[in-house]
């Protein structure tokens, strides 16, 4: 019974951690503030607190042998075909999962205010009309894809203002279990792609001293 209790407690702790939400809240306007959210914990990332300058230590030079080994262990450079292959491998495995995860992505709060200004009243009215059309076309689609419990977007015009001003607060959060699900879905196709990539470039000729790659490395050194 004791072992079952320990397993049950561990399972409960893992379940609570999986349900924990992590995300960020960004406020912009007169000042940009970025806060990291982990459950009920809030950590301010911006603006950063000023720290006392530390004494800079001289970087240690690595032995020449280590540098040679690192150069020999470099992976082949990615080509456009490799990038397309990577994108295809990732998109195929995440296609259906991302649709369900995006619905569980919580965007809260979503508070945006934009007041259009300028020197030309016609341009102000035109920008205001375009912004209205974009917002009310995009918002219904966004509500279908994401979870938006509270959203408030206000647009206005100020013919006496010399410039447009914007301010707002946007919060994004997702459960840890969803992040783990995405990582698990990515792991297998990425491993398969990497093995295929190494096998494809296994017989590539190594760059000689007169090759463009070696010349570029010498010039950048």
Largest sheet: number of strands, sense, barrel closure: 6 strands, mixed
- Average pLDDT reading: 77
Overall SS class = alpha+beta
Q: Strand order across the biggest sheet?
A: 3-2-1-6-4-5
Number of helices, counting only DSSP H or I runs of 4 residues or more: 6
Observed structural traits:
six-stranded mixed beta sheet; 221 residues; single chain; alpha+beta; 6 helices
Could you give the topology of this structure?
Elements: H1 2-19, E1 21-28, E2 33-38, E3 41-46, H2 64-72, H3 80-104, E4 106-116, H4 121-145, E5 151-157, E6 165-175, H5 176-200, H6 212-220
Parallel strand pairs: 4-5
Antiparallel strand pairs: 1-2, 1-6, 2-3, 4-6
Helix pairs in contact: 3-5
Task: Quickly describe the structure.
With 221 residues, this protein is of the alpha+beta class.
Explain what you see.
- With 221 residues, the chain is α+β, with helices and mostly antiparallel strands.
- It has six helices and six strands; from the N terminus they run H-E-E-E-H-H-E-H-E-E-H-H.
- The protein has a six-stranded mixed sheet.
- The radius of gyration is 26 Å and the shape is extended.
């Amino acid at each position: 019974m004791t072992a079952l209790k320990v397993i049950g407690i561990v399972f409960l702790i893992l379940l609570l951690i999986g349900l924990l939400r992590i995300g960020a809240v960004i406020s912009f306007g007169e000042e940009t503030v970025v806060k990291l959210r982990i459950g009920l914990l809030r950590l301010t990332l911006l603006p950063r607190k000023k720290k006392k300058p530390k004494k800079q230590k001289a970087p240690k030079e690595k032995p020449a042998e280590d540098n040679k080994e690192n150069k020999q262990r470099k992976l082949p450079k990615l080509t456009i075909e490799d990038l397309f292959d990577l994108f295809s491998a990732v998109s195929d495995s995440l296609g259906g999962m991302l649709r369900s995860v995006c619905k569980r992505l919580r965007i809260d709060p979503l508070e945006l205010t934009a007041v259009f200004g300028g020197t030309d009243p016609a341009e102000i009215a035109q920008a205001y009309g375009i912004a209205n059309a974009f917002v009310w076309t995009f918002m219904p689609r966004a509500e279908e894809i994401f979870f938006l419990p509270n959203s408030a977007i206000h647009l206005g015009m100020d013919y006496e203002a010399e410039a447009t001003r914007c301010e707002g607060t946007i919060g994004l959060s997702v459960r840890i279990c969803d992040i783990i699900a995405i990582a698990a879905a990515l792991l297998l196709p990425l491993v398969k792609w990497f093995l295929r990539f190494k096998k494809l470039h296994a017989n590539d000729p190594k760059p000689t001293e007169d090759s463009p790659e070696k010349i570029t490395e010498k010039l950048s050194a």
